[in-house]
Specification:
By secondary structure, the protein is of the alpha/beta class. It is 41% helix and 22% strand. α2 packs across α3.
Length: 317
């Protein structure tokens, strides 16, 4: 608190509480008992407060204690100040005890109908007072949102481990690899390789491709550039187009576990097995916020079995 005159005066919350109690109780001893302090501790605090403020706060009238004009002015603000502080402390207690809290979550499209509803339900079951808002966005957009403070937690996926690590490092993001999500070749049923157990993507170099889901990135990493005839990130559209014979494509397991596969297409594992990795990410300065910590913990504990997702380091089947 800075007055208009020279210097600066500082009023501690404890000073306000003590003066309010003295005004109501009429003595230092009674005020100290009410607040749970010793009488000498209160007297010493008042002496320090008077020194900081630059004027007396109490005056003695025989055995009675009376507040000075300055002390009365400070005591007068006690209901508003102490009430506001107590309200904030109650809110902080709610956040600490996970009775309340808000988390802004982002996730990639195929997580929206699979991982996200499950984790939202798990958080609601564990802590009903935690509110999570969700926005669907592509992984790079989610990382930018994390870095700019627009979200607290993000589910992201990537097809190149080195590129993902570089992106996390460039944004200063903490991440935890959750699942390995295998990629599958999607072929028309009458394709020459449709009866093979697995498909080497290089053998599809001369086919027309329906691009999306980082198809071109994966193919280039294998040493060829696919001949793209159509592009869509809608996996239902990909399946429909392949089933009608418009080309071949590549899709992760996660969206395929929720899709009705058209009769006109077949799904084959790639050989060698290609995959993407799913991560949960947050910023270091937010990771210790109770509601954020709870959310990332729930995400880290998700069971990938319903979508046949493997943990990193396990055998991909």
């Amino acid at each position: 608190m800075t007055p208009t005159g020279e210097g600066a005066r500082d009023i501690e919350l404890r000073t306000i509480r003590i003066l309010s109690a003295i005004e109501e109780e009429g003595s230092i001893t009674a005020a100290a008992q009410r607040l749970g302090y010793s009488q000498p501790a209160v007297s010493q605090h008042l002496q320090r407060a008077e020194s900081r403020i630059g004027m007396p706060l109490i005056t003695r009238l025989g055995r009675r204690i009376k507040l000075t004009e300055a002390g009365t002015a400070i005591a007068a603000i006690a209901p508003q100040v102490i009430g506001a502080v107590d309200d904030v402390l109650t809110q902080l207690d709610g956040l600490t005890q996970l009775r309340s809290g808000n988390v802004r979550l982002r996730g990639f499209p195929s997580a929206s109908s699979t991982l996200v509803p499950t984790l939202l339900n798990d958080v609601r079951t564990a802590r009903p007072g935690i509110a999570i808002s969700y926005t669907e966005s592509e992984p790079h957009d989610s990382l930018e949102a994390l870095a700019s403070g627009e979200c607290d937690v993000a589910l992201v996926c990537g097809y190149d481990a080195a590129e993902m690590d570089a992106a996390f490092e460039s944004f200063g993001i903490e991440s935890n690899a959750l699942f390995v999500d295998p990629l599958y070749a999607v072929l028309p049923r009458d394709h020459p390789l449709a009866d093979e157990t697995t498909v080497d993507l290089v053998d599809l170099e001369d086919d027309d491709w329906i691009s999306g889901w980082h198809t071109e990135e994966v193919c280039r990493n294998l040493g060829f550039t696919p001949k793209v005839s159509m592009t869509t990130d809608n996996f239902i559209a990909v399946l429909g187009l392949v089933a009608r014979g418009f080309g071949v494509s590549l899709l992760p397991r996660l969206p395929l576990t929720t899709a009705a596969i058209p009769r006109g297409c077949v799904i084959k594992p790639t050989n060698p097995q290609e995959y993407r990795t799913i991560h949960v990410a947050t910023m270091p300065e937010r990771s210790s916020i109770p509601a954020v910590k709870l959310t990332t913990g729930v995400i880290a504990g998700l069971d990938g079995t319903p979508w046949r997702l493997n943990r990193p380091g396990s055998v991909v089947v």
